[in-house]
Amino acid sequence: MNAPNARDTFRLALPTPAGELRAEIAVPTRLIQVSDIVPVMRSLSEQALVLEEKKHERVGETPSCHKGCAACCRMLVPVSPPEAFALKKTVDQLPAAQRDRILQRLATLQHTLNEAGLLGRLVQLSETRTQLSDEDMEPVNREYYARRLPCPFLDDDVCSLYEARPAACRELLVTSPAEWCQEMDNNPVRTVPVPFRVGTALSLLWATITGGVARLIPLPVALDWAERHAGENSVRHNGATLLQMGVEKILGLLRHKA
Ligand code: SF4
């Protein structure tokens, strides 16, 4: 029988636009839920983004993002199903006072969205059986951003779940002046290109496992979605198989970009 914390280590090489990413990744040898693969997949994305950042730094483009800015925390954040489960687990395990504060802010946000006629659309998007493109999401993204509604995880303009924040939050690195982000519609905001969107890779992985569409769930309804679909995350998989599937999805995204 394997020890509960036993891990298998794999060496990977990913051909990213900024050069080959070589990584050593450890996954549990025991059977795991698909949400357990999230930290591993995110670490690959972060390492790929570091390569891209270094490439940009060589031509004098350094990220201007800084603690307390939080302009991007007023955009509609897309969350992959495995991340939604992981986020719910994180929130459930918070100290009661912090969890209650977050859930209260989430309830207020949902009330505001409902009044604006947006909440039902976000729930519909989270449950869609149709494959949606970025273009399909554009109108609701714009309507949401126009309201500048702060993310319920923000505490004094600092992310209170920084270590557990979704991949989409990690991937937005701006190199133009930070103040331009206050008005993204009217400023030519420059960003570090994302080698591959790990949220998309995780969505594709989820779609393969469940036989559904590759969905991205709007953050304001992600915890509710995870609760409604909890049973689907109770299925256990071999960790190495999940990693292999996740890496195949990443390679597919990299090929598509090339
Ligand atoms: S999860 Fe954190 S980083 Fe992402 S939008 Fe919310 S507060 Fe900002």
Task: Report what the structure shows.
The protein has 258 residues and is of the alpha+beta class. The protein has one domain. Helices cover 46% and strands 12% of the residues. It has nine helices and eight strands. The strands form four sheets. It has a two-stranded antiparallel sheet with strand order 1-2. Strands 3-8 form a two-stranded antiparallel ribbon. The chain has a two-stranded antiparallel ribbon with strand order 4-7. A hairpin with a 2-residue loop joins strand 1 and strand 2. Helix 2 packs across helix 8 and helix 7 packs across helix 9. The mean pLDDT is 93. The structure holds iron/sulfur cluster.
Q: Quote the distance from N terminus to C terminus.
A: 44 Å
The dominant shape is globular
- Mean pLDDT across every amino acid position: 93
The largest sheet, given as strand count, sense and whether it forms a barrel, is:
2 strands, antiparallel
Question: Any idea how many domains?
Answer: 1
Bound compounds, each kind once, are:
iron/sulfur cluster
How many distinct helices? 9
What is the helix fraction of residues, given as a range? 40-55%
Number of strands: 8
Structural class: alpha+beta
Assembly status: single chain
- Series of secondary-structure elements, N-terminal to C-terminal: EEEHEHHHHEEHHEHEH
Share in β-strands: 5-15%
